[in-house]
Specification:
alpha/beta; eight-stranded parallel barrel; 13 helices; globular; binds flavin-adenine dinucleotide
């Protein structure tokens, strides 16, 4: 219930203005967000690139303003030019949210998001890197997968995300586990109804394990995005059973979450990628992170009620 409330708050303008103005919030936000600008993103990418791979996300979502979607494209083009100039193209890719690129615009949203993402894929290809398309709430899944299919015709390495909490996902994994596909499997971060999603943690975890098996047995490149130690163990076992070498799949975790475990996995020679968000539009992303762990919420409430 708490998680649902925080996810609802992540879309509330009133909560947003209270949280953004609370000065004591900054250290907690900084744990999850690299900083406001491209310099911060590149600095953190260099720090992590010592032993890990990176996926950089320019924060922002749910735009209903075409000019804002264009600004998001320009931010990604600038980021990719920097990654290229700094020689980070082989370690750092980018993650994009289609709702930040125009998908929700009332007229031609899907077409605009496709064209905008295509421009980012072109720049990523010139920088020698890839793009992964994040997955948002279930009302966007079909549209997102259709856009990714179109992008893959010209940029076959374009990756996407599937969410194990959705009942459809095991089938989507089977459809998308073909040669060359890059699929990031996560549990799912939105508040979805029981008609489309498993709501019980043990059911979500079982679905995750089943989806992992489909991806590991398939011909694509599975990206195992979880901080859950049990599922990480299962992923390693399934990869070994499927005869996968350590460079034929990867683990992914979020910036600021379980950094020691990230280092341990990387230290064991496994591929470990960190999802690093940056930018000023951190509010919705941050609220979803709070909902994932009660201890985060306790820090948050203390900071919100402290004067400072
Ligand atoms: C690389 C990456 C990309 C993602 N992309 C998407 C996406 O496109 N769409 C989407 O819906 N979701 C996305 N997610 C979020 C995901 O769906 C989950 O909400 C999130 O990862 C928490 O699930 P978990 O698998 O870590 O398992 P959980 O059962 O939630 O957590 C397992 C353990 O990990 C630790 N942990 C987990 N989250 C936190 C946190 N926020 N703070 C501190 N500790 C924590 C805790 O110790 C917890 O007990 C992504 C996650 C990752 C890692």
């Amino acid at each position: 219930m708490l998680r649902s409330a925080l996810i609802a708050a992540s879309r509330s303008a009133t909560c947003r203005s209270v949280v953004e103005r609370a000065r004591m919030m900054r250290p907690i936000v900084d744990r999850f967000v690299a900083g406001a600008g491209v310099d911060d993103a590149v600095r953190v990418a260099h720090e992590l690139a010592v032993d890990r791979l990176i996926s950089l996300d320019h924060l922002g979502e749910d735009t209903l303003d075409r000019a804002q979607a264009e600004r998001t494209v320009l931010a990604y083009l600038a980021l990719l030019a920097r990654l290229d100039a700094e020689g980070l193209g082989d370690r750092a890719e980018v993650s994009v949210k289609l709702s930040a690129l125009g998908q929700a615009l009332p007229v031609d949203g899907e077409k605009i998001a496709l064209e905008n993402t295509r421009r980012i894929c072109e720049a990523a290809a010139s920088a020698g890197t890839t793009v992964t398309v994040d997955m948002e709430d279930h009302t966007t899944t079909d549209s997102t997968l259709s856009i990714v299919r179109s992008l893959r015709a010209d940029f076959p390495s374009t990756g996407t995300v599937l969410q194990a909490y959705l009942k459809r996902t095991e089938g989507d994994c089977a459809d998308l586990a073909g040669p060359g596909s890059r699929i990031r499997l996560c549990k799912g971060a939105y508040d979805e109804p029981a008609s489309v999603a498993y709501r019980d943690k043990s059911e979500v975890d079982s679905s995750y394990a089943r989806c992992l098996k489909v991806l590991m047995d398939g011909k694509g490149y599975p990206m195992v995005a979880t901080h859950d130690s049990r599922l990480i163990e299962i992923a390693e076992r399934l990869a070994a059973e499927a005869g996968r070498a350590v460079d034929e799949y990867e683990f992914q975790m979020l910036y600021g979450v379980r950094p020691q475990e990230q280092q341990q996995l990387a230290g064991r020679g496994l591929r470990m990628r960190v999802y690093v968000p940056y930018g000023t539009e951190w509010y919705s992303y941050f609220m979803r992170r709070l909902g994932e762990r009660p201890a985060n919420l306790a820090f948050f409430l203390r900071a919100l009620t402290r004067r400072g």
